[in-house]
């Protein structure tokens, strides 16, 4: 399955990414020559979605190291680790971020005995490999997940787990794209996903662009639409999945899972193995990012709340594994009990 959308790539020793803050009004690409701007782009959601964040960090680390003129190997090493540290501080919930940084560190240590130019080349190659692997992983997730989809399904998705959240065709939307490619006639309900509207702006844009039938709803409509019998499946992505299958994803996912259970609707999570963090036993230990309150007091820059109101803005919530019907990965589909099925997939 393909997507025409190129979210992030390496070109002529620069990092290029689509500006997700400009979508859906403007399809514009930004070219980065300074890794610090890539750090800022991850923080301000120019690029977002756990797998895409991982790819951005890998390419950003390669870019930062490429530009260095170290006085010694020690100097190169110190600065490389400082760059990695800056990327680590961007989005705490996204497991793929830390996974990608670990991959870059591992590669750095492997080639440490080479000369600086060779080290830089190896890091660029590793980052491009991470990017290309993500494309292939998304395709495998699509293939593994498409058998869960039936002709005539009405599927609800939340946030954006599409091409824009990865380097490829997406995780949740990768499954949806794969089902469409098989000729299945399906329809997608898109949650708008407050506070920053990844559903309304990004998922809706992707689906419209590819003529996949879709209907946008406000987040607070999901329960009513389920009760009306208009939704028969939910598929979402994940930012971090614990060893027991508890899954962190965009705030609002947990409420959907509870609603899905009440209405007897299967609830699927689609994610690469790099999102699964077996060092974390349960969702209680997944770090949850809190973002600026302005995301709530404003909508796309327009103030909607009075000055001085207190705001709480957790960017993610955790869906306990008991609400999850299956976890679709590139290595296969994990079913409950997740402790065992995840461990098997991860080996
Ligand atoms: O804050 P965001 O936009 O980075 O949140 C993204 C999500 O919650 C996605 O569902 C998740 O990263 C999976 S993307 C394949």
Radius of gyration (Å):
20 Å
The biggest sheet, with number of strands, parallel, antiparallel or mixed sense and barrel status, is: 7 strands, mixed
SSE ordering = EEEHHHHHEHEHEHEEEHEEHEEEEEH
Main-sheet strand order equals: 6-5-4-7-10-15-16
Number of helices: 11
Bound molecules: 5-S-methyl-1-O-phosphono-5-thio-D-ribulose
What portion of the residues fall into strands of 2 or more residues?
Answer: 15-25%
Extended strand count: 16
Mean pLDDT: 97
pLDDT below 50 for ≥5 consecutive residues: which ranges?
A: none
Q: Give the % helix.
A: 40-55%
Describe it for me?
The protein has 347 residues and is of the alpha/beta class. It is 40% helix and 17% strand. The chain has eleven helices and 16 strands. Strands 6-5-4-7-10-15-16 form a seven-stranded mixed β-sheet, with helices on both faces. A four-stranded mixed β-sheet has the order 11-8-9-14, with helices on one face. Strands 1-2-3 form a three-stranded antiparallel β-sheet, covered by helices on one side. A hairpin with a 4-residue loop joins β8 (240-242) and β9 (247-250). α2 runs antiparallel to α3 and α5 packs across α6. It is globular, with a radius of gyration of 20 Å. The mean pLDDT is 97. The structure holds 5-S-methyl-1-O-phosphono-5-thio-D-ribulose (MRU). Residues 48-51, 159, 161, 165-166, 171, 198, 237-239, 249-250, 315 line the site of 5-S-methyl-1-O-phosphono-5-thio-D-ribulose (MRU).
């Amino acid at each position: 399955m393909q997507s025409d959308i190129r979210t992030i790539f390496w070109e002529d020793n620069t990092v290029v990414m689509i500006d997700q803050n400009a979508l859906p009004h403007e399809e514009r690409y930004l070219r980065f020559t300074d890794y610090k701007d890539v750090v800022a782009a991850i923080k301000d959601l120019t690029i977002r979605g756990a797998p895409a964040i991982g790819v951005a960090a890998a390419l950003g680390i390669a870019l930062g190291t490429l530009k260095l003129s170290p006085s010694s190997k020690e100097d190169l090493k110190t600065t490389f680790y400082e760059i990695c540290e800056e990327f680590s501080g961007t989005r705490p919930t996204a497991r793929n971020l830390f996974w990608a940084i670990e991959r870059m560190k591992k590669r750095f240590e492997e080639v440490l005995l080479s000369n600086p130019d060779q080290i830089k080349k190896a890091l660029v190659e590793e980052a491009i490999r991470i990017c290309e692997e993500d494309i292939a992983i998304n395709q495998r997730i699509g293939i593994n997940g498409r058998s869960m989809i039936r002709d005539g399904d009405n599927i609800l998705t939340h946030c954006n787990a599409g091409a824009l959240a990865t380097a490829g065709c997406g995780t949740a939307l990768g499954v949806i794209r794969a089902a469409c490619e098989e000729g299945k006639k399906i329809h997608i309900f898109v949650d708008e996903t407050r506070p920053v509207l990844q559903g309304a702006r990004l998922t809706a844009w992707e689906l419209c662009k590819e003529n996949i039938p879709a209907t946008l709803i406000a987040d607070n409509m999901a329960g009513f639409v389920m009760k009306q019998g208009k939704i028969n499946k939910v598929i979402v992505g994940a930012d971090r999945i614990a060893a027991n299958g508890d899954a962190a994803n965009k705030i609002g996912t947990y409420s959907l899972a509870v609603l899905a259970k009440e209405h007897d609707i299967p609830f699927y999570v689609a994610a690469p193995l790099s999102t699964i963090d077996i060092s974390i036993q349960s969702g209680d230990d997944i770090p949850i990012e809190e973002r600026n309150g302005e995301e709530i007091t404003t909508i796309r820059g327009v103030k909607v709340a009075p000055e001085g109101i207190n705001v709480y803005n957790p960017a993610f919530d955790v869906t306990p594994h008991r609400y999850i019907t299956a976890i679709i990965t590139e290595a296969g589909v994990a079913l409950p009990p997740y402790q065992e099925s995840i461990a098997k997939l991860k080996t």
